[in-house]
């Protein structure tokens, strides 16, 4: 039992360290970062849609009856709609609007924090909770299955964490603040892992119903927050780059299917 907890929690912590992939941006000059972050936000939109439709939605329909799974996805969309409304009311009462994209393609990351940043942290926290639960479930089967699951999740997390970090920058967080909050969100995976280890099948059942909720949240953020921001620039070259980056995010999620 001790070895089970050790292997599981060590694996989850290793996966959480992937959130520091954003460290590479700390060596990039602020002016250059603001010029290229729109590419990373496009990548994030593609990765969120790819993760939702290629991984989470099929998983939900394979484990849960179609109607309840669909209703929970819609519930996920509605929950994030309500959450964004609350964040707008809370942060925009007499305050200047948060970061965003200018027509020439640069992101303003110095004004008040945009609610999208908080939403990506919450949705990513739910997703990380699921990752921790999945890793724990793998180690309950065997050490080999647990290690294989961990490797698959690490490969899965790298493109998503890069995109999440970019969204936090776009939302107005400083680079170090975004890095720290992204790591805290990643640590939620420990909660998911411990829940499954302590509760066993009951914990897995709870995690199961979070899958369609996470899918709905990812779909909402990509379509309601990120893609509308990308439409604020109308340059043909920027539009082509955005489309290519979104496609790369989707294809990264397709590629991961062959590694799982």
What is this structure, in a nutshell?
The chain contains nine helices and two strands, in the order αααββαααααα.
List the defining traits of the structure above.
260 residues; 2% strand; transmembrane helix; 9 helices; transmembrane; two-stranded antiparallel ribbon; mainly alpha; 80% helix; 2 strands
Total tally of structural domains:
1
Tell me about the largest β-sheet. Answer: 2 strands, antiparallel
Number of helices: 9
Q: Kindly estimate the percentage of residues that lie in beta strands according to DSSP.
A: under 5%
The shape is globular
Strand arrangement within the widest β-sheet reads 1-2
- Gyration radius from CA atoms, angstroms: 18 Å
Number of strands: 2
* Low-pLDDT stretches: 91-99
Descriptive overview:
By secondary structure, the protein is mainly α. The chain has one domain. It is built from nine helices and two strands, in the order αααββαααααα. Strands 1-2 form a two-stranded antiparallel sheet. A hairpin with a 5-residue loop joins strand 1 (100-101) and strand 2 (107-108). Helix 2 (30-63) packs across helix 9 (236-257). The protein is globular and about 55 Å long.
């Amino acid at each position: 039992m001790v070895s089970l907890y050790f292997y599981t929690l060590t694996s989850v912590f290793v996966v959480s360290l992937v959130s520091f992939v954003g460290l590479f941006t700390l060596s990039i000059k602020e002016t250059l970062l603001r010029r290229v972050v729109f590419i990373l936000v496009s990548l994030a939109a593609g990765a969120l849609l790819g993760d939702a439709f290629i991984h989470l939605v099929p998983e939900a329909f394979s484990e849960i009856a179609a109607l309840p799974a669909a209703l929970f996805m819609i519930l996920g969309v509605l929950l994030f709609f309500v959450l964004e409304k609350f964040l707008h009311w809370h942060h925009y009462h007499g305050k200047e609007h948060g970061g965003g994209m200018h027509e020439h393609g640069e992101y303003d990351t110095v004004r008040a924090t945009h609610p999208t940043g908080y939403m990506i942290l919450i949705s990513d926290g739910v997703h990380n909770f699921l990752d921790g639960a999945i890793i724990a479930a793998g180690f309950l089967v065997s050490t080999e299955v647990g290690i294989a699951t961990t490797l698959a999740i690490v490969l899965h997390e790298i493109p998503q964490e890069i995109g999440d970090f970019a969204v936090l920058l776009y939302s107005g967080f400083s680079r170090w603040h975004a890095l720290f909050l992204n790591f805290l969100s990643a640590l939620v995976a420990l909660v998911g892992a411990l829940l499954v280890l302590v509760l066993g099948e009951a914990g897995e059942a709870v995690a199961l119903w979070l899958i369609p909720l996470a899918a709905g949240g990812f779909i909402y953020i990509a379509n309601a927050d990120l893609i509308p921001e990308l439409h604020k620039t109308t340059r043909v070259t920027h539009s082509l780059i955005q489309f290519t980056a979104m496609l790369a995010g989707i294809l990264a999620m397709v590629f991961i299917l062959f590694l799982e």
